[in-house]
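Many introductory courses stop at the sequence. We go one step further.
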Amino acid sequence: MIKTSTQLKALVKNKTKGNSLNAQIMFRHYIMERYLERLAVSDYKDLIIIKGGVLIASMIGIDKRSTFDVDATIKSLNFEVDTVYSIVLEIININLEDNILFEINSVETIMGDFEYPGIRFSLEAKLDKMKTPLKLDFSTNDVITPNEITYNYPLLFEDRSIPIMSYNIETILSEKFETIISRGTLNTRMRDYYDVYILLTING
């Protein structure tokens, strides 16, 4: 297990061969997985369903798709800022002995692609003197057809995975198609087209 920033930097340098841009992406994804592992052992592991870029990047590789936040939908819980704040605080305070300390910097309501207002948390993760930002975006009332699945999220530097609840591939694609259709060709983000293309390619 990585316990110091020196260890982490050495592993990242080895994997990215000194590419500073790729290194920053890998640092961010490492911090995301530290949050996800805390979620996976929390009391909310079955109620917070991971979706979006972090899930797609995990499926196809962060060399092909990176992201800056963790998107999730919450089910069977009171979707109020205070309630979700308490849940996030409980999750990030779980001690995994990885020496990562999370701190919530701000919370705001957002619309984005949500039918209902979402909640965004801006966090900072610390490992020794190294600081990495992390955003968590939550929505609710998302339709998952037929239902969420257990996804084994592979870790970057360990030969193991962590079980998290996630969207199935059908729901990922249906949301992407809905976004493309509702926004129209001129207003759709290129990454939505890219996600559809690569997911259809790897899933045959």
